[in-house]
Amino acid sequence: MNFVKRAFLNVKVKMGRSLLLFLVMSAILLFVLAGIIIQQAANSAVSSAKKSANATVTLAASREQAFKKVSRQSGTRPKLTLPSVSIATAKKIASSGYVKSYNISNSASVNASSFSAIETSSSSQQGPQGAGAQEQQSGDITLSGVSNTAQLTTFSSGGSKIVEGRGIKASDADTNNVTVEKQLAKENNLKVGSTISIKNTSKKVTKLKIIGIYKASSTENSGFGMMQNDPSNTIYSSVEKVNSIKGTSGKATSVTFTMNNPANAKKFIKSAKKQLSSSKFALTADDSTYRSILTPLNNVSSFANKIVWLVGIAGTIILALIVILMVRERRYEIGVLLSLGEKRWKVIAQFFSELLLIMAVSSIVALIGGKFLGNTVSNQLIQQTTSATSSLTVGSNQNQGPQAGGSGLSQGQANVGNANRKGIGQNKQLQSLDVNISLAAFLKLLGFGLFIILLATLLGTINVLLLEPRRILIS
Amino acid sequence: MLKTNRVGYWYGDAENKLFENVNLEFLKGRLYSIIGKSGSGKTTFLSLIAGLARPSEGSIEFNGRELSKIGLLNYRKKCVSMVFQSYNLFSYMSAIENILTAMSITGSKNAGNKKYVLEMLDQVGIDEASAKRRVSRLSGGQQQRVAIVRTMCCDAQLVVADEPTGNLDETSTKDVLSLLQKIAHEQQKCVILVTHELDVAKACDSVIELHQKKFEYV
Ligand SMILES: Nc1ncnc2c1ncn2[C@@H]1O[C@H](COP(=O)(O)OP(=O)(O)OP(=O)(O)O)[C@@H](O)[C@H]1O
Ligand SMILES: [Mg+2]
């Protein structure tokens, strides 16, 4: 009878002891499995967050650098001139492996010619002020050049929507195609297919063709703050059209790069900076959505990790103690085996096999109970972590407020609005943290269990290695 | 078969030798008994010739080869078989499983032959039903007979027994003794037993007494 058969027989005959071991082992494996499940669920949620949460890096003129120049030219009237980004450079940067897509944008302030702009009390008040500060902004219509409207955050976040026709695409590059706001279209009786005309600052008239109508988000005001007139007065066209109307070529106000993997935003900025020789430009990352999702998930993941290790260590100690007691109780049996000339490792292998056998049964029990336990624990964890982080984001917004300072109250409000929306989205994602026992999780459990019993057997049977077989004679 | 050359042994302190300069020869086909006062070192001596420990000085030869050359583990496996006062069977196994296990570990030529084992057990008065029961449910006499059959089924030429009849009544003692004689005389093995009982000692072919650190034939 070899050691495996002996192990089988022993487990079968010593039912009471086997049952005790089985209960202990099931408990240990259950906790380990729960830990593994939560860990895996958190990890897969992290990777799906990476996919769903867009991190963007925006390349634009550095306002900081521009202001520095202004203050150096003392005496003269301060005039802020922002350099424009070269589209060619932007495309070069976009060829980096970190970039999933990019959106080039620029804008021109023009005047409505064949139609009239929406007038609101705030825009009519702010209008002249804006004109005084910046010559460019004298028009009542903002012609916003983009490579793709779908990629704009106001559209991708669901704030603005195309309600008729379609948005601007890369193929609209050298066309007169534009997308206008629903309100503007309604006031002027414009439809998809209608032609409108605008005048640029040098009174040159340009004809534009409406290919789509969009509905502006109610909270968003296209980032120009209060200086900007009504959001309905924004017309989207291609970047090239805006350039031709302004009389420039190959220039953009900003370029937004969407990352393949939000985690790489920093690396991308580093490599892009090398390609940008000038310090006149700044690259700013917006991966806040990604981060706000990542933090609670990482917390869950590291907690699960700790559970696995703690239970593993505790389990090993408990099992080792049991094995030590078992070995003491079975000294004579071991002595006889040794007196028969059995190798010591085979004696130890028998103990290991006995534990292995019990573990096999225990792991099935753990499999049944693990899903339940994993669900309960992870749900509770998520409730805790999300409430903790949502209070955190509110806190950080309050800090941002004063920092933004005079630059505009509306911007601050927009940020709060954004954060709230992100918060809701994030909760949705975390509530559905999927707790499922995959084959990988089960294999991991078996591996872990194997490691535990191996260690416990080794720790518990050191006695066997030291046992003098003569001891069995002198009882 | 077994020869000790100037064997001496002590626990820890060499000033307190249990025995020294032991030169004995044990032959096959004979039954030896070792007697002596309690604590004189009989069990210790047995542990040396059973390959459970090494002598402090001198050497032991089995069929002309030193035990240290054969290797104690290999020696225990192939050359020697043991019977203990407390039977030392695997309590979770039946009689037949106990014997089969020993046979498979020692690589006996009849390993795995259940029928042979049952026959051997039957010869010592243990029927099939008892042979299949867990040994912890057998009487002491039956257990010791199982332990002796275990020895008989293994191929080892040397059998050492430490007070094999120590826990048994008169009838069982006689049974066990006749079995050991059978092993020596019929199986032509060499049997060395330690005993306190004079009747048992007298039934052996040679009696050796351990007295004042010396072994002497009686
Ligand atoms: N492991 C040990 N360490 C130290 N001393 C020991 C050890 N084992 C036995 N002894 C001592 O060695 C002496 C001989 O012991 P041993 O068991 O060989 O005697 P014995 O002749 O078999 O006695 P008994 O007839 O009572 O069985 C005893 O005094 C005992 O206390
Ligand atoms: Mg003794």
Structure notes:
The complex is a heterodimer of chains A (475) and B (218). With 475 residues, chain A is an alpha+beta fold. Chain A folds into 2 domains: 2-51 and 293-395 and 404-474, no CATH class; 55-286, no CATH class. Chain A is built from 15 helices and 12 strands. In chain A, α2 (15-52) runs antiparallel to α10. In chain A, 37% of the residues are buried. Chain B has 218 residues and is α/β, with parallel strands linked by helices. Chain B has a single domain (2-217), classed as 3-Layer(aba) Sandwich (Rossmann fold), CATH 3.40.50. Helices cover 37% and strands 25% of the residues of chain B. Chain B has helices spanning 42-49, 67-70, 72-78, 95-106, 114-123, 128-131, 140-153, 170-185, 198-202, and strands at residues 2-10, 17-22, 25-26, 31-36, 57-62, 65-66, 80-83, 158-162, 190-194, 206-211, 214-217. In chain B, β8 (158-162), α8 and β9 form a beta-alpha-beta unit. Chain B is globular and about 55 Å long. Chain A binds chain B through residues 1-2, 6, 9-10, 13-14, 332-333, 335-343, 468-470, 472-475, and chain B through 43, 46-47, 50, 52-53, 73-78, 82, 84-86, 88-93, 97, 100-102, 104-106, 134, 162. Bound molecules: adenosine-5'-triphosphate (ATP) and magnesium ion.
